[in-house]
C-alpha cells in the first residue's frame, strides 16, 4: 500500500512538472519560432480568412458578444498578472471585489455565448464550411473548453482575481524568469490546472491557426 501511494505521488509530481514546467516553455518556443517562420513564409497571408461577406447579419450576433467578452476577460487576466499587488489592494474592499467578480463573470458568459454561436455557424453554414479548415475547428473547440472551465472556476472557486494575483501571477512570473515555482499550482484543484494547461495549449496552437 505504501509503495502504491508513493508511486501515485511520483506520477502526480511528474505530471505537474510536465504541465507547468515543460509545456509552458514548449508552448512559448513553438509560438515564437512558429509565428516568425510562418510570417516570413506566408507574408500577408498570416491572417484569418474573413467570412463576414458570407453571412454578415448572423455573424453580428456571435461576433459582438465574443469580441467584447474576450477583450474584458483577457484584460482582466493581464491586469492581475502585471499588477498583482494593485489587484489585491483593489479587492481588499468587499464591494469592489464583488463588482469585479460579477463583471468578469458576465463578460465570460458573453464570450461563451458569442463563441458558441460562431462555432455553430461555422459547422452548419455550407458557405462558411468552404473556408473552414481542421485547425479552425480545433482551436474553437479548445477555446470553448477553456471558457467553460473559466466559468466553472468562477462559480465554484470564488474570488478568482485574488488568488490569481496571489498564486498564479508569481508562478507565471517565475516561468519568464526561467525559475519555475510550481508548488502553489500543484496544490490547486484539477479544474484550475486544466484551465492553466488550456491557456498554454492555445499559445502553442496559435502558429498553426489563422
- Structural class, from secondary structure content? mainly alpha
Helix proportion of residues, in percent?
A: over 70%
Q: What general outline do the C-alpha atoms trace?
A: globular
Main sheet characteristics: none
Q: Radius of gyration in whole Å, from Cα?
A: 19 Å
Q: What is the H/E string?
A: HHHHHHHHH
The percent range for strand residues is under 5%
DSSP helical segment count: 9
What is the residue-mean pLDDT, rounded to a whole number? 89
Number of strands: 0
Low-confidence stretches: none
In whole angstroms, the N-to-C terminal distance is 50 Å
Structural commentary:
- The chain is mostly helical.
- Helix content is 82%, strand content 0%.
- It contains nine helices and no strands.
- Helix 2 (56-82) packs antiparallel against helix 4 (94-124).
- The longest helix has 41 residues, at 2-42.
- The chain is globular.
- The chain starts with a helix and ends in a 5-residue tail after the last helix.
Amino acid at each position: 500500500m505504501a509503495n502504491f501511494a508513493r508511486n501515485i505521488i511520483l506520477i502526480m509530481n511528474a505530471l505537474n512538472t510536465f504541465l507547468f514546467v515543460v509545456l509552458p516553455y514548449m508552448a512559448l518556443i513553438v509560438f515564437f519560432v512558429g509565428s516568425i517562420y510562418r510570417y516570413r513564409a506566408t507574408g500577408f497571408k498570416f491572417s484569418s480568412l474573413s467570412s463576414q461577406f458570407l453571412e454578415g447579419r448572423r455573424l453580428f450576433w456571435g461576433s459582438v458578444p465574443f469580441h467584447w467578452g474576450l477583450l474584458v476577460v483577457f484584460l482582466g487576466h493581464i491586469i492581475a498578472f502585471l499588477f498583482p499587488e494593485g489587484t489585491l489592494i483593489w479587492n481588499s474592499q468587499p464591494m469592489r471585489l464583488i463588482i469585479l467578480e460579477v463583471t468578469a463573470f458576465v463578460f465570460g458568459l458573453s464570450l461563451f455565448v458569442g463563441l458558441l454561436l460562431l462555432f455553430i455557424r461555422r459547422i452548419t453554414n455550407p458557405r462558411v464550411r468552404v473556408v473552414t479548415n481542421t485547425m479552425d475547428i480545433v482551436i474553437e473547440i479548445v477555446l470553448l473548453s477553456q471558457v467553460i472551465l473559466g466559468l466553472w472556476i468562477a462559480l465554484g472557486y470564488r474570488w478568482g482575481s485574488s488568488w490569481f494575483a496571489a498564486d498564479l501571477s508569481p508562478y507565471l512570473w517565475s516561468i519568464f524568469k526561467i525559475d519555475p515555482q510550481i508548488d502553489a499550482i500543484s496544490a490547486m484543484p484539477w479544474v484550475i490546472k486544466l484551465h492553466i494547461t488550456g491557456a498554454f495549449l492555445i499559445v502553442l496552437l496559435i502558429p498553426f491557426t489563422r
